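For anyone still unconvinced, we reproduce a single protein record, the chain in one-letter code, the fold tokenised, and leave readers to judge:
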Amino acid sequence: MSPRPIDEAATVLADPTAYADDDRLHSALTRLRTDNPVAWVDSRPYRPFWAITKHEDIMAIERANDLFLSEPRPLLATAETDDVLKAQQDAGMGIRTLIHIDDPHHRKVRTIGADWFRPKAMRALKVRVDELAKRYVDTMRDVGPECDFVDAIAVTGLGKVDRKALRAPYWQGRSRGVA
């Protein structure tokens, strides 16, 4: 059996530098959507994967979660990292968030936080998010032409949004807590 042909535009998806070059990334994605919307990517140090580039196809895959699984590789990582994560999972450790698990466990875990993200809860949170956004844009303006975003904003600002959304009062008021 001959190997699958590799589309050079698809290899951009496995090149971390491409994500800092909007023109290069979007050019490759546009070409893939037109000429090869379901592309095979085989680019070391990653394991081969399928790149699905059209929204309609992505949504069809999302709805067919009995055919397309998230586990064991829900995100692009090097083969070496895949092996480490697999070993951690096999040992009962590691990360298992919603993107890492499939049904029926996914559905059960998803219900735990579902109420926090319903439209009514999001509308209530929007008021607070808008207040924080204004405050932190003003802070960046006042700091001057350069600002360490992580120190000046992220750990003290956006974290507050996450903590409120997750109802985690323990971290409120802490400047370096995990949000």
